[in-house]
């Protein structure tokens, strides 16, 4: 079963070009000029149930825009898109219960509250039964090697690695089936990176979940993904099997670096 099916997906951003000078600003009030930038262009790919796929590309290649369209945050400018059998931009309640979107550089937690308070709110928001909530909370903290005493600590007082772990617990409490991860290990120490990679693999194995992950750290892709998609200027440039690539090349990192920089296939 395909959990994601994108055909000729595109996203165009339209931005206002504000001119310099008072006179030009007055004229602009009546006749505004806009510029269009195509962030994603003609992107077609699919994901099977239980599959883990890495989405790579340089800054501005369209990775985060793609994730936002798949999760329903952004409406596509063109093409067709089906996620878990739904049109994601409709943001249906049942659809949102099946997906999670975690951004390594953006927090969904209230920094002035302990993580436990945000978890309790998540429990109410997603209608998680009490027993399931308690079992999931215990299991997730164990999988992430997270000290349970930290859940009652104000989030702003946690380290970067600890904050990322409570972010993951918060997003996985309701047992999502499709997870979008945008730079989940960015800025973390080696121990925290390893814990999060182990968590991704273990959660996927235990729950049969599908994972779509972006990262600039090749170790994230090498250790968690089956397949990799490489975007260049919003277009799909390469689609590769991770295990086959590791067998054929001496260094996965160097091979990926060469592909990203345009050195052959």
Question: What is shown here, in short?
Answer:
Residues 7-258 form the ABC transporter domain. By secondary structure, the protein is of the alpha/beta class. The protein has ten helices and nine strands.
Report the uncertain regions: none
How confident overall, as mean pLDDT? 89
Tell me the strand percentage band.
Answer: 25-35%
Query: What profile does the largest beta sheet have?
Result: 6 strands, mixed
Give the CA-based shape. Answer: globular
The helix fraction, in percent, is: 25-40%
Overall description:
Helix 4 (115-125) runs parallel beside helix 6 (160-172) and helix 5 (130-143) runs antiparallel to helix 6 (160-172). The mean pLDDT is 89. By secondary structure, the protein is α/β, with parallel strands linked by helices. Strand 8 and strand 9 (235-241) form a beta hairpin. The protein is built from 10 helices and 9 strands. The strands form 2 sheets. Strands 5-6-7-3-8-9 form a 6-stranded mixed β-sheet, with helices on both faces. Strands 2-1-4 form a 3-stranded antiparallel β-sheet, with helices on one face.
What brief labels describe this structure?
265 residues; alpha/beta; six-stranded mixed beta sheet; three-stranded antiparallel beta sheet; globular; ATP-binding; ATP hydrolysis activity
